[in-house]
């Protein structure tokens, strides 16, 4: 692990009773953008039993998700991939985790649209995936503020129209994002 980032969390969103603190490790092969995407996905999708980069120890699932929520039988119910992931991996996930919601969080609407087109070209199963394209300018500014110790005040995540509102390290963010259902 090349770095660790701690996040002190507060929430004004009644639907997201965030824990007071989380720590996200940056692997040697990961960029700051990937760390930021994992963190933002964590607060967007926060729910009970949500885990970051948990090895599932299942021979049938050879992948480690960026985020996963397991049910009480330890089967994935929510699977979130952040940043770059291959179409081949997404195709396998549809088979390996058939009861799971599969979400992909990308750095921009253009990156989400590019993946959407690649999925269509490879004829992946329909109605299995949802892609989020974050506002690229917001993500770049967020990455510029990222330090080893961070403060987040989460205010709101709206799905229709898609929009995020939060304060991160003293800077207010009110940013739209793109949703694509595949």
Query: Strand arrangement, largest sheet?
Result: 2-1-8-9-10-7-6-5-4-3
Helix fraction bin: 25-40%
User: What is the ordering of alpha helices and beta strands?
Assistant: EEHEEEHEHEHEEE
Query: What distance separates the N and C termini?
Result: 34 Å
Unreliably modeled segments: none
Mean pLDDT: 96
- Write down how many β-strands occur, each being a DSSP E stretch of 2 or more residues: 10
Report Rg.
16 Å
**What form results from the Cα inertia axes?**
globular
How many helix segments? 4
> What does the main sheet amount to?
10 strands, mixed
Structural class: alpha/beta
Task: List strands and helices in order, with pairings.
Blueprint: E1 3-11, E2 21-26, H1 32-44, E3 50-52, E4 67-70, E5 76-82, H2 87-96, E6 101-106, H3 109-121, E7 129-134, H4 136-145, E8 149-159, E9 162-168, E10 171-181
Parallel strand pairs: 1-8, 5-6, 6-7
Antiparallel strand pairs: 1-2, 3-4, 4-5, 7-10, 8-9, 9-10
């Amino acid at each position: 692990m090349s770095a660790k980032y701690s996040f002190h969390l507060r929430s004004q969103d009644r639907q997201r009773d965030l824990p007071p603190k989380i720590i996200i490790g940056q692997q040697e092969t990961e960029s700051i953008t990937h760390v930021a995407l994992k963190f933002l996905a964590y607060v967007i999708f926060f729910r009970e039993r949500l885990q970051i980069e948990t090895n599932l120890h299942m021979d049938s699932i050879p992948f480690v998700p960026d985020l996963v929520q397991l049910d009480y039988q330890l089967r994935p119910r929510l699977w979130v991939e952040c940043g770059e992931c291959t179409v081949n991996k997404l195709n396998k996930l549809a088979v390996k985790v058939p009861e799971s919601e599969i979400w992909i969080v990308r750095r921009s609407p253009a990156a989400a649209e590019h993946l959407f087109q690649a999925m269509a070209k490879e004829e992946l199963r329909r109605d299995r995936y949802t892609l989020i394209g974050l506002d690229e300018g917001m993500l770049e500014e967020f990455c510029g503020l990222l330090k080893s110790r961070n403060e987040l005040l989460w205010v709101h995540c709206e799905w229709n129209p898609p929009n995020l509102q939060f304060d991160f390290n003293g800077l207010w963010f009110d940013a739209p994002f793109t949703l694509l259902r595949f």
